[in-house]
Design goal:
The chain is of the alpha/beta class and about 230 residues long. The protein has six helices and ten strands. It is about 30% helix and about 25% strand. The radius of gyration is 17 Å and the shape is globular.
C-alpha cells in the first residue's frame, strides 16, 4: 500500500453501553486501501465501524481517524470528522419522499454547501461515478435495490471523503447487484480513499480479494480461513 495511514487504532476497547464488545483492537488502514471486516452477526463489526465514526466513544486505547484524535474529540467536532467519512448502510437510508437529486442536495445543504452551481456540478459528478447519470429525477421506489445502494454510495461521496465505511452494503441485494457494489467500492478505493466493508457475504472474495480482518470472540484478527 502506498498511501499514508488514515485510520490508526491502538489497543482500543469497543463498548456498547457497559458491554465490552471488542478488546485490544490494533489496526491501521492506508488512504488507498480496501479492507474487508468479516464475522458472524453480533461479533462487533458494526460496533467497530461506529467507533471509527465516533458514534461510540473511545474509552480505552488510542484512535486517530482522518486527522482526528477519537479519544479527545469533542461533541462539536464530530460533524467535521464525519464530513471526511462517507457511511453506507445495509438499508440504504434514502429519503423516500424525494428524488435522487434531492436526496443528494439534502446532504449538501446539511453540510454547508451554498453555491447552487457548484452543488449541481458535484451532484452530476457523483451520480456519474456510480453509473446513475440519468437517474437524478427518479424517486427511490422507481429504482432497483442495487441502484438505491448506488445512490447511497453517491451520497457518501458528496463531500469527497477520505474514508468510506460500508456496513453490510450488499445485505439486501441479489448476487449480481452485490458484486456490482463491491466492484464499485473497490474502484473508489483506487481513487485514494480508504474503503472498509463489513460483511458476512464471502462469495465475492475470490474475484475481489483484499486484506481481511475477522471479528471473533471479542477480538479483531487477520482472517486466514473463511468459507468459500
Amino acid at each position: 500500500m502506498s498511501g499514508e495511514r488514515i485510520i490508526e487504532l491502538d489497543k482500543v476497547a469497543v463498548y456498547q453501553k457497559e458491554n465490552l464488545v471488542l478488546a485490544n483492537v490494533t489496526l491501521s488502514i492506508n488512504q488507498d486501501e480496501f479492507l474487508y471486516l468479516i464475522g458472524k452477526t453480533g461479533t462487533g463489526k458494526s460496533s467497530l465501524l461506529k467507533t471509527i465514526y465516533a458514534e461510540l466513544p473511545v474509552r480505552m486505547g488510542n484512535a486517530r481517524v482522518a486527522g482526528f484524535d477519537l479519544r479527545m474529540i469533542k461533541l462539536k467536532e464530530i460533524p467535521y470528522l464525519r464530513r471526511k467519512l462517507g457511511i453506507v448502510f445495509q438499508d440504504f437510508q434514502l429519503l423516500m419522499d424525494r428524488s435522487v437529486n434531492d436526496n443528494l442536495l439534502f446532504v449538501m445543504h446539511a453540510t454547508g454547501w451554498k453555491d447552487k452551481r457548484q452543488m449541481q456540478k458535484r451532484l452530476l459528478e457523483v451520480l456519474a461515478k456510480v453509473n446513475l447519470g440519468n437517474k437524478g429525477p427518479k424517486m427511490p421506489h422507481q429504482l432497483s435495490g442495487g441502484e438505491q445502494q448506488r445512490v447511497a454510495i453517491a451520497r457518501a461521496l458528496v463531500n469527497d471523503p477520505e474514508v468510506i465505511l460500508a456496513d453490510e452494503p450488499t445485505g439486501n441485494l441479489d448476487p449480481e447487484s452485490s458484486e456490482g457494489i463491491i466492484s464499485l467500492l473497490m474502484d473508489i478505493s483506487k481513487t485514494g480513499r480508504a474503503v472498509v466493508v463489513a460483511t458476512h457475504n464471502y462469495t465475492f472474495f475470490d474475484k475481489y480479494p483484499a486484506r481481511t480482518l475477522l471479528c471473533e470472540n471479542g477480538k479483531v484478527l487477520p482472517a486466514t480461513n473463511f468459507p468459500r
